[in-house]
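Example complex used in Figure S2.
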Amino acid sequence: MFEVKDLKFKEIVDISSLVINKPITCIVGASGSGKTTFLRMLNRMNVPDRGTITYNGQDIALLDTVKLRRKVVMLGQTPVIYSGTIEENLQIGLQFSQKPLATANAMKESLMKVELNKSLADDCRTLSGGEKQRLCLARVMLMNADVYLLDEPSAALDKYTEKIIIDNLVKFVTEQNKQLVMITHSEEIARRNPNSIIRMENGHIVEEYHE
Amino acid sequence: MNSSVMDLSILQLSIAYVFILILLVIFKSRGIKREKQILIATVRMTIQLTVMGYVLMLVFDHASWWLTASMITIMIAFAIYNAIKRVKNKMSKQLQKMIMVSMVTGALITAVFFIIVVLQVRPWFNPQYFIPISGMIVGNCMTGIALGANKLCSDMDEKRVIIENSLMLGATPAQATKEIVNDAFDSAILPTMNNMLTMGIVSLPGMMTGQILSGTFPLTAIKYQIGIMLAILGATALTTIMFVMLGYRTFFTKDNRLR
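Predicted assembly (470 residues):
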């Protein structure tokens, strides 16, 4: 659970108060409304000029950032693929966070959740933009984090695949008792999976919906 | 073995400048505007070496630890200045400081070890050994660190998105930059390694050639050359690994964000 108070980052984000405590939270808003900057502040990739963010009651400014990011994992807007095979790309998140490596079955299951029909030994250089995004999503889902911060996780996907993958993602988060904070360009996604919807405009929260 | 050395008259030496004239003619005829740099490089090389010759004569005649130490200090300071100048990317003050720390530590430790432990020079500050050997070690460290710094800076810049992604997944800065740090170290070491591969077949190194020309028995010159090559490799490795290991951290804030 995150609690945000009096948060200010340059002229980009200005939030007086916000609580994120539902399993699924969608952040919507026009491009340049401060969504990504705000999301990055939740795992301290950006540091606010003033204000506090607490995670489970602890000020994140006082936490070890590496430990925080291993619990609060973030997937950025640009899919990043490391050189190597699909398997190496799936395992790298677990290696970074020093968690036990995934079994072949777990990796295959994770690929199925994102509708990526590839072998674990395949080289990643041949993947398309959409496939790369799905692989990144599969990597993050394998990480067994407490919170997933996803920035436009379906931006490079077609409507059909987007629906399946987001549904799988929501199911996974709900079943595993995790928390998901997701920026989405799609009002439809936000409406279909609403525990909370936060609408941002010019750095401010202009609308909040909580189930 | 004939130990007499053929001296070189000023007139004989002047004839060698014909190579510069040939170079100037080639550049001029190809329309490459480099004449000024060629002249500056030639004049600087001539003046610097002449001055160094007189300085060495003075230092050899008045051998003392402080004179040797002063010479080494000047050499290292100049090498640090040059290494920093050779890096194309803009470097932070902290990163420049790391170049300084690594150069001083890496080059000095290796030079002192090689001269005192391997060569067993007595007295340790004997300028005839200490200055030229340190000079070779410092010079190679300078090249290595400049190559390493160039690679480190350009990769840290080009791979920013990848590094950020790794941090977002819970990587420490060391984990997020492991490949970049390794590549920078490798690129600094590679020229020395390649040089060693061809040494004796394609190239006869300057020190060895100099010793042979001055009448040293070739096998003695070769032993010195092998020793100095090992010291150069060790010094370059030590200096560069120190630099990259200290240097990568300067790209991050205390709370593990990219600056």
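Chain A has a mean pLDDT of 90. Chain A touches chain B at residues 43-47, 65-66, 69-70, 73-76, 78, 80, 82, 92-93, 95-97, 139-140, 143 (CB under 8 Å).
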